[in-house]
TrEMBL record:
Keywords: DNA damage, DNA repair, DNA-binding, Glycosidase, Hydrolase, Lyase, Metal-binding, Multifunctional enzyme, Zinc, Zinc-finger. Its EC number is 3.2.2.23, 4.2.99.18. It comes from Saccharomonospora amisosensis. Its cofactor is Zn(2+). Pfam families: Fapy_DNA_glyco (PF01149), H2TH (PF06831), zf-FPG_IleRS (PF06827). Residues 234-268 form the FPG-type domain. This is Formamidopyrimidine-DNA glycosylase. PANTHER family: FORMAMIDOPYRIMIDINE-DNA GLYCOSYLASE. InterPro entries: FPG_cat, FPG_N, H2TH_FPG, Ribosomal_uS13-like_H2TH, Znf_DNA_glyclase/AP_lyase, Znf_FPG/IleRS. It catalyses: Hydrolysis of DNA containing ring-opened 7-methylguanine residues, releasing 2,6-diamino-4-hydroxy-5-(N-methyl)formamidopyrimidine. Gene3D superfamilies: 1.10.8.50, MutM-like, N-terminal. The keyword NADP does not apply. GO terms for biological process: base-excision repair. Belongs to the FPG family.
């Protein structure tokens, strides 16, 4: 799933390549991707792209008084091209969901797989998008004091709180694993019970991990962002490999639709976390 650094890099790419250009046509290849009816996508025709920004993990293409808001979800992506086909795409065929023509070039919004989550809104104000209206503090705006306030009274696991967009906006499954590893904290730690020193380490890790990923990603071609993300990960997606810090084996805990990775030596005092899926297999 694209998270804060990748969405920020895509917004930067659009600021460099799309701003100042006119939307000549919008092709909708999958009507289910549109979450708003009015304004219509045809209202964007002839509008100039005036900006591109980010709200948490939402991409915001500013078109004068209108905003094309995109949430790429788990398997969505933006593919930029300097030359797009002139013929409209066939609806319901392949991964293409929506195409935006900007002169001769533009971009496609695509989604792989059968579980669809890619969402597009056309609004006059980003706050009209419910998931934006619910966003918590942007992860890059947090300091230790603000983080301490957010964690106070929360009895959920730290991993859960970090990925709750209504609490902290922009962090997903991958970067939460990286942040917890950098902060040397268990994903199962209770958020409200963190000692002061741990809160400070966590705030520092959030800033360092995300800022570092943004620096590596911004300026890259959009097509290379996924590879850039993978190359910078130290524990996420590396189960079974040695931890780059201590050499212990990176472990995994699996859930119904995702998994987390961690280092026992760095994060849990050497104790593996219970993996219910593995426990069921051993019965």
């Amino acid at each position: 799933m694209p998270e804060l650094p990748e969405v920020e890099a895509i917004a930067h790419h659009l600021r460099e390549h799309a701003v100042g250009r006119i939307i000549t046509r919008v092709d909708v290849a999958s009507l289910t991707v549109l979450k708003t009816v009015s304004p219509s996508w045809t209202d964007l025709h002839g509008r100039e792209v005036t900006g591109a920004s980010r709200h948490g993990k939402h991409l915001d293409l500013e078109c004068g008084e209108s905003h094309l808001i995109v949430h790429l979800a788990r398997a969505g992506w933006l593919r930029w091209s300097d030359s797009l086909p002139a013929a409209p795409p066939r609806q319901g065929k392949g991964p293409l969901a929506l195409r935006v023509h900007l002169g001769g070039g533009g971009f496609d919004l695509t989604e792989a797989g059968t579980k669809k989550g890619l969402a597009v809104w056309i609004v006059h104000d980003p706050a009209e998008v419910p998931s934006i209206a619910r966003l918590g503090t942007d992860a890059l705006e947090l300091d230790a004091a603000a983080l301490r306030e957010l964690l106070a009274g929360r009895t959920a696991r730290l991993k859960t709180v970090l990925t709750d967009q209504s609490v902290i906006a922009g962090i997903g499954n991958a970067y939460s694993d990286e942040i917890l590893h950098a902060a040397r904290l268990s994903p199962y730690a209770t958020a409200a019970k963190l000692p002061e020193e741990s809160v400070e380490r966590l705030a520092e890790a959030i800033h360092e991990v995300l800022s570092g990923a943004v620096e590596r990603s911004v300026g890259q071609a959009v097509a290379r962002l996924k590879g850039e993300k993978r190359s910078g990960l130290r524990v996420h997606g590396r189960a079974g490999l040695p931890c780059p810090v201590c050499g212990d084996t990176v472990r995994e805990v699996s859930f119904a639709d995702k998994a987390l990775q961690y280092c026992p030596t760095c994060q849990t005092g050497g104790k593996p976390l219970a993996d219910r899926r593995l426990s069921r297999l051993l019965k």
